[in-house]
């Protein structure tokens, strides 16, 4: 009798456990994705191993269009929706009579897999040391709602590369040095699942030789009859070949330092001697490269008195 009672208790516990993990289980959808073939599919939370009997699919558009479906599969064909219009998708799992946790996603209907992703209509605008690049699709039948663009900028002099992804059809490229060739690799990418890359377009930038900006004083050592100065040059932002650095002291002195083959293109050092003690000198500094001479930087220097012996 005791054995029979124990068996009945075990059976009651088993049935109670089975019911809580079956009919009372609350399912959940964790992710929703739109494939490039306009198939909407989703995944059920694996940590909630419920027996999902159906899904409700609610679709609401920006123009107040609504569609409602009940399906047993974990996907639905939404190719009937207009391409590049924005929609909100809500997927709700149902386990028997238990309504699970829904998952919402707002997205465009992506471009179809056979969309022409070729790029063209390139325009360049140069402003100082920066370049603004714009482009467009050669075939604009569907628009570009699900596209992103990958731009790679390669400095052919230094061999460095910069990669950037963007959604707009333009890019601002800063710190472009004159006299240096840059290779631009650009392509469109359809972000739908799976991603599809368009053909690569290769462009080149080479800005004309340009004079440097005016140099700026870095350090100065003033004595009674001489001055030692060092000046900051543009350096990496203008890599046109340097030729010389000039100090113009008017009728009192002129000094030119050759910079050809300089191993330190960011600094120029100058020594001026045969000056008078306790005297004020006005001078200008400029640097010359293959683009010409820079604007001048003015400076006034007072030499010190001679030290008594």
Q: Mind explaining what this structure looks like?
A:
There is one protein chain. By secondary structure, the chain is mostly beta strands. The chain folds into 3 domains: 25-108, Sandwich (Immunoglobulin-like), CATH 2.60.40; 119-206, Immunoglobulin-like (Sandwich); 216-302, Immunoglobulins (Immunoglobulin-like). The chain has 1 helix and 24 strands. Strands 3, 4, 6, 7 and 8 form a 5-stranded antiparallel β-sheet that branches. Strands 11, 12, 14, 15 and 16 form a 5-stranded antiparallel β-sheet that branches. A hairpin with a 4-residue loop joins β1 (29-34) and β2. It is elongated. It starts with a helix and ends in a 7-residue tail after the last strand. Mean pLDDT is 88; it is low at 1-23.
Describe this structure in a few short sentences:
By secondary structure, the chain is mainly β. The protein is built from 1 helix and 24 strands. The longest helix is centred in the first third of the chain and has 19 residues.
């Amino acid at each position: 009798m005791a054995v029979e009672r124990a068996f009945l208790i075990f059976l009651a516990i088993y049935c109670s456990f089975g019911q809580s993990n079956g009919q009372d289980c609350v399912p959940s959808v964790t992710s929703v994705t739109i494939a490039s073939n306009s198939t909407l599919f989703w995944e059920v939370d694996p940590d909630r191993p419920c027996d999902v009997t159906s899904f409700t699919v609610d679709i609401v558009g920006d123009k107040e269009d609504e569609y409602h479906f009940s399906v047993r599969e974990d996907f639905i064909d939404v190719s009937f929706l207009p391409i590049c219009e924005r929609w909100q998708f809500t997927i709700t799992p149902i386990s028997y009579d238990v309504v699970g946790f829904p998952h919402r996603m707002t997205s465009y209907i992506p471009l179809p897999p056979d969309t022409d992703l070729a790029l063209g209509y390139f325009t360049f605008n140069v402003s100082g040391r920066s370049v603004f690049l714009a482009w467009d699709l050669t075939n604009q039948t569907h628009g570009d709602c699900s596209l992103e663009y990958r731009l790679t900028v390669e400095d052919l002099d230094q061999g460095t590369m910069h990669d950037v992804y963007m959604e707009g059809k333009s890019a601002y490229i800063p710190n472009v040095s004159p006299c240096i060739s840059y290779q631009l690799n650009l392509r469109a990418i359809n972000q739908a699942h799976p991603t599809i890359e368009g053909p690569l377009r290769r462009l080149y930038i080479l800005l004309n030789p340009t004079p440097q900006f005016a140099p700026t004083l870095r350090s100065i050592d003033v004595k009674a009859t001489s001055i030692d100065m060092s000046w900051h040059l543009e350096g990496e932002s203008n890599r046109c070949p340097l030729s010389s650095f000039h100090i113009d002291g008017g009728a009192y002195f002129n000094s030119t330092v050759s910079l050809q083959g300089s191993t330190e293109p960011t600094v120029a050092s100058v020594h001026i001697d045969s000056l008078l003690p306790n005297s004020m000198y006005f001078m200008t500094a400029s640097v010359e490269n293959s683009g010409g001479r820079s604007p001048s930087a003015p400076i006034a220097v007072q030499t010190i008195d001679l030290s008594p012996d």
